[in-house]
Specification:
This protein is mostly helical. It has 9 helices and no strands. About 70% of the residues lie in helices and about 0% in strands.
């Protein structure tokens, strides 16, 4: 059993590694800190991608390659969820499917942004902007796939009837709150400027740090849960 949990712990490390790679390669190299607003003219977006074509493509290549790490992290979470409530198989499966779908939410937009940066000098600026917009629509509007994962996780954590839960209740409620906040992301399809635009105060500067904090919190409680399960046998 210890060997099995050692592998689970290794899978749990995929989350922090993924988060670092996402911030560095999707965020910094990919030019997404912050992204271009929806009201930015097409020539400006096209010029940026033309001037930073190699940088953006490298950023997206690594982002796409790192995407499956999110699924690996989800596998570790599912194993812990199964140990928390062995009689409830549905929630771990929903969580795992949600993690798998979220991987596609990361990899497919990355490929589209790489395409936008592949030969921007030969595309009309409006075409480049359309690809850029498409990537963001796929990235944000599909919030329900990730909320499926997060809310299943929260439900399992909060159903733990132990006197001292494997995952602290405050963490379960924070996870639930995160899952309930993600629908705000879909508003990028309705607003081109303001707090709900893709570069806005709420939809970018609140939502993305919130998700990063969610991953950090879950990673910490995940490692502690694995240690407790090993200790309790």
């Amino acid at each position: 059993m210890t060997g099995s949990l050692s592998l689970v712990r290794a899978c749990a490390w995929a989350g922090p590694v993924f988060l670092v790679l996402l911030i560095v390669f999707w965020g910094l190299l990919g030019g997404n800190v912050p992204p271009f607003g929806s009201d930015v003219p097409a020539p400006i977006v096209a010029r940026y991608l033309a001037e930073h074509t190699i940088q953006v493509r490298i950023g997206m290549i690594v982002t796409v390659a790192a995407g499956p790490l999110y699924l690996v992290w989800g596998v570790a979470i599912s194993v812990v969820m199964e140990r928390i409530d062995p009689a409830e198989p549905i929630l771990p499966r929903l969580q795992l499917w949600g993690a798998g779908f979220t991987t596609l939410v990361i990899t497919i937009p990355g490929c589209i942004w790489a395409t936008a940066a592949f030969r921007p000098e030969r595309l009309a600026p409006e075409t480049t902007l359309m690809l850029y917009d498409l990537g963001w629509m796929l990235f944000d509007v599909q919030w329900s796939l990730t909320s499926l994962q997060i809310l299943a996780m929260a439900a399992c954590f909060l159903r733990d009837q132990r006197a001292v839960p494997v995952v602290p209740r405050w963490a379960g409620w924070f996870v639930a709150w995160t899952g309930c906040m993600l629908p705000i992301l879909a508003l990028i399809s309705l607003f081109k400027s303001g707090p709900f635009a893709r570069d806005g105060l709420i939809n970018y500067w609140f939502e993305f740090p919130m998700f990063f904090l969610f991953m950090m919190v879950v990673s910490v409680v995940l490692f502690r849960a694995i240690a407790r399960i090993e200790r309790d046998g």
